[in-house]
């Protein structure tokens, strides 16, 4: 159950998110109900703008004219609950999850959308993958908007960068962490964040928290460089995790293509997977 909508499972394939409403007849309740309905309308428009994406929860469309929407069901829950209940997965799996999330966040940015609620409990973990959810606090801009200017003019835009750092940290360290940027509209001080020593993607996390990225575009460009210079060589030192990593990407075609376009040097290993391994 979220702040904007009540979520009810229909079956094991999808849930319905209904706008929250106050049954009281007061003027205050009327204003509240209109606000929640408008937030749900924004969320619907954002899902429609984003379209299908491997890193974003599947949207099945509106339920009816009530403002309710249908979304894929993920019974494994969100990262905030999933992490303390499960042992840390392999390095290859955590790399794959982080890569998937960054691809998703860049897609959101490229679609002229601000999420404005990025945190571990807004990432679901269905069937060993990660999916971004909950755009009710988001903002959608016209298709021709220059997002770099949005990040220059709107201080709230930086909240997405801060949230991304917390999510990457949570997966990398396998310990839930979230800093609430919007409480004081600022990035955290050094004494307010966790130690990133020896973590995967430490440099990316630290730069986010130090406000060294202008936008998600600059984060994504640095991320691609980090993949080539740090992550790929590290995976090449350990054949087993690297093979697991490559098999995971065989199962997610869009991410495989993303790595090909980034000249991922180890991609030829896909061609050497034994026949019958399930990778095609």
From TrEMBL:
Database matches in InterPro entries: Kinase-like_dom_sf (IPR011009), Prot_kinase_dom (IPR000719)
Domain Protein kinase: 1-255
Pfam families cross-referenced by the UniProt entry: Pkinase
MF (Gene Ontology): ATP binding; protein kinase activity
Chain ranges passing through the membrane: none
Protein name: Protein kinase domain-containing protein
Organism: Trichophyton soudanense CBS 452.61
Record lineage: Eukaryota, Fungi, Dikarya, Ascomycota, Pezizomycotina
């Amino acid at each position: 159950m979220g702040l904007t909508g009540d979520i009810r499972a229909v079956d094991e394939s999808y849930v319905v998110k209904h706008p929250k409403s106050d049954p009281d007849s007061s003027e205050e309740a009327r204003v509240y109900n209109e606000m929640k309905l408008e937030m749900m309308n924004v969320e619907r428009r954002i899902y429609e703008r984003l379209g299908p994406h491997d890193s974003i929860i599947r949207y099945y469309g509106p339920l009816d004219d009530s403002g309710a929407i249908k979304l894929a069901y993920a019974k494994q829950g969100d990262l905030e609950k999933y992490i303390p209940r499960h042992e840390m997965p392999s390095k290859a799996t955590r790399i794959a999850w982080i890569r998937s999330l960054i691809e998703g966040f860049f897609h959101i940015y490229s679609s002229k959308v601000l999420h404005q609620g990025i945190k571990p409990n807004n990432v679901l973990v269905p069937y060993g993958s990660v999916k971004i959810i909950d755009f009710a606090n988001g903002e959608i801009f016209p298709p021709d908007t220059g997002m770099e200017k949005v990040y220059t003019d709107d201080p709230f835009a930086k909240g997405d960068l801060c949230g991304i750092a917390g999510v990457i940290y949570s997966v990398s360290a396998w310990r839930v962490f979230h800093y609430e940027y919007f409480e004081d509209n600022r990035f955290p001080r050094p004494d307010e964040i966790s130690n990133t020593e020896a973590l995967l993607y430490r440099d990316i996390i630290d730069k986010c928290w130090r406000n060294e990225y202008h936008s998600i575009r600059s984060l994504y460009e640095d991320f691609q460089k980090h993949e080539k210079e740090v992550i790929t060589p590290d995976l090449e030192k350990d054949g087993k995790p690297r093979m697991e990593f490559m098999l995971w990407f065989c199962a997610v075609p869009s991410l495989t293509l993303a790595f090909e376009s980034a000249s991922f040097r180890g991609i030829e290993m896909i061609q050497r997977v034994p026949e019958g391994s399930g990778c095609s």
